[in-house]
């Protein structure tokens, strides 16, 4: 028996999704008669320690993953479960994404104090989000909204709806589904209305590239279609040198009729004007991601990005 040490952040969501991953891996071990057991290791990341500032002001890539990746390199742990959207574009030498499990809902949702849709928010309503991507798109839809930062784990952010006088907070559907808190969701923001973060709703299982034993198991957990979508989205992010906190979003999907991969990408100014969106079709995910990024750069995305990077 080999004990696989699984690194995770210690937030309720991180522990829940790590538990769900371990459960699936145990099931696969049983099915294929593989000799692994699993042990959870909680790791505090920089992003967890800095809770009092808007994340976009902290800057730096991989705030929620660096310490965990170091533990992988030090062999303190053997694999790590991350939210894909927290993954920087580049991985440290020696580490790989060993599996991308099937994605869940990638949309953003509103949790509102009263009403049932965005239109029900009163003029000048106070909406909580620290994501420039969400702020930019909501502001474009409703210039009157007052968007204010809200940090903390998802339970904290839902509580702040009551304690800090927000009319609504924006969260990812995926986290709420994983926590079994769907009943808190007031409404889903369609992907065309609020383009999700790159990788939102997907997980990344990271391990050492040389750990063939573990990789043999992770391969069985891998979901290739999700991986193609995520690769296209991340190629887009990489080309724009994202990861810096800029309003960037993208989602890949299959065209229902032709079956061809389609990628929609967004770069927006934080105030919601201008917002640039482009969509293209292609077969190769990396080429597609790069092509959509190029299209937005031609349309002036570089000016938005340069201004934000200062
Ligand atoms: N920004 C933090 C974060 N990172 C991953 C998720 C959960 C959604 C996912 O796995 O994509 C969340 C919470 C949120 O955005 O509401």
UniProtKB/TrEMBL annotation:
Identify the EC number(s): 2.5.1.61
> What SUPFAM superfamilies does this protein's entry cite?
Periplasmic binding protein-like II, Porphobilinogen deaminase (hydroxymethylbilane synthase), C-terminal domain
**Pathway per the UniProt entry:** Porphyrin-containing compound metabolism; protoporphyrin-IX biosynthesis; coproporphyrinogen-III from 5-aminolevulinate: step 2/4
CDD domains attached here?
Answer: PBP2_EcHMBS_like (cd13646)
UniProt catalytic activity: 4 porphobilinogen + H2O = hydroxymethylbilane + 4 NH4(+)
Q: Which cofactor does it need?
A: dipyrromethane
Q: Which domain of life is it from?
A: Bacteria
Q: Which residues carry this modification: S-(dipyrrolylmethanemethyl)cysteine?
A: 244
Task: Output one GO MF annotation.
Answer: hydroxymethylbilane synthase activity
Gene Ontology cellular-component terms for this entry are: cytoplasm
Porphobilinogen deaminase C-terminal domain: residues covered = 228-297
Keyword Phosphoprotein present in the record's keywords: the answer is no
Listed under GO biological process in this entry are: protoporphyrinogen IX biosynthetic process
| PROSITE patterns referenced in this protein's UniProt entry, alphabetically | PORPHOBILINOGEN_DEAM
What keyword terms does UniProt attach to this protein? Porphyrin biosynthesis, Transferase
UniProt xrefs under Pfam families: Porphobil_deam (PF01379), Porphobil_deamC (PF03900)
By its UniProt entry, which NCBIfam families does this protein fall under? hemC
PANTHER family listed in its UniProt record: PORPHOBILINOGEN DEAMINASE
UniProt similarity note = Belongs to the HMBS family.
What job does this protein perform?
Answer: Tetrapolymerization of the monopyrrole PBG into the hydroxymethylbilane pre-uroporphyrinogen in several discrete steps.
Something else the entry says is: The porphobilinogen subunits are added to the dipyrromethane group.
Name the chain's protein. Porphobilinogen deaminase
Q: Which organism is it from?
A: Paenibacillus aquistagni
Read off the lineage from the record: Bacteria, Bacillati, Bacillota, Bacilli, Bacillales
């Amino acid at each position: 028996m080999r004990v696989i040490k699984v690194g995770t952040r210690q937030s309720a969501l991180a522990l829940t999704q790590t538990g769900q991953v371990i459960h699936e891996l145990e099931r696969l071990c049983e099915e294929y008669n593989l000799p692994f057991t699993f042990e959870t290791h909680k790791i505090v990341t920089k992003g967890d320690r800095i809770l009092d500032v808007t994340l976009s002001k902290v800057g730096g890539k991989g705030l929620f993953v660096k310490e965990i990746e170091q533990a992988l390199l030090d062999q303190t742990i053997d694999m790590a479960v991350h939210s894909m959207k927290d993954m920087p574009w580049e991985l440290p030498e020696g580490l790989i994404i060993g599996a991308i499990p099937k994605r869940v809902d990638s949309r953003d949702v509103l949790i509102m104090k009263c009403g049932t849709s965005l239109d029900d928010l009163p003029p000048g309503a106070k909406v909580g989000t620290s994501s420039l991507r969400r702020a930019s798109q909501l502001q474009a839809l409703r210039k009157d909204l007052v968007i204010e930062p809200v940090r903390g784990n998802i339970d904290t952010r839902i509580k702040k709806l009551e304690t800090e006088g927000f009319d609504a907070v924006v969260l990812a559907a995926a986290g709420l589904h994983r926590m079994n808190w769907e009943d808190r969701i007031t409404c889903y923001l369609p992907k065309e209305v609020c383009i999700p973060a790159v990788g939102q709703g997907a997980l990344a299982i990271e391990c050492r590239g040389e750990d063939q034993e573990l990789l043999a198991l992770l391969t069985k957990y891998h979901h290739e279609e999700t991986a193609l979508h995520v690769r296209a989205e991340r190629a887009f992010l990489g080309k724009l040198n994202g990861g810096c906190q800029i309003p960037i979003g993208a989602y890949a999907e299959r065209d229902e009729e032709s079956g061809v991969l389609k990628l929609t990408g967004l770069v927006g100014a934080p105030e919601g004007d201008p917002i640039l969106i482009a969509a293209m079709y292609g077969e190769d995910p990396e080429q597609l991601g790069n092509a959509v990024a190029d299209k937005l750069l031609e349309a002036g995305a570089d000016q938005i990005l340069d201004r934000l990077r200062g």
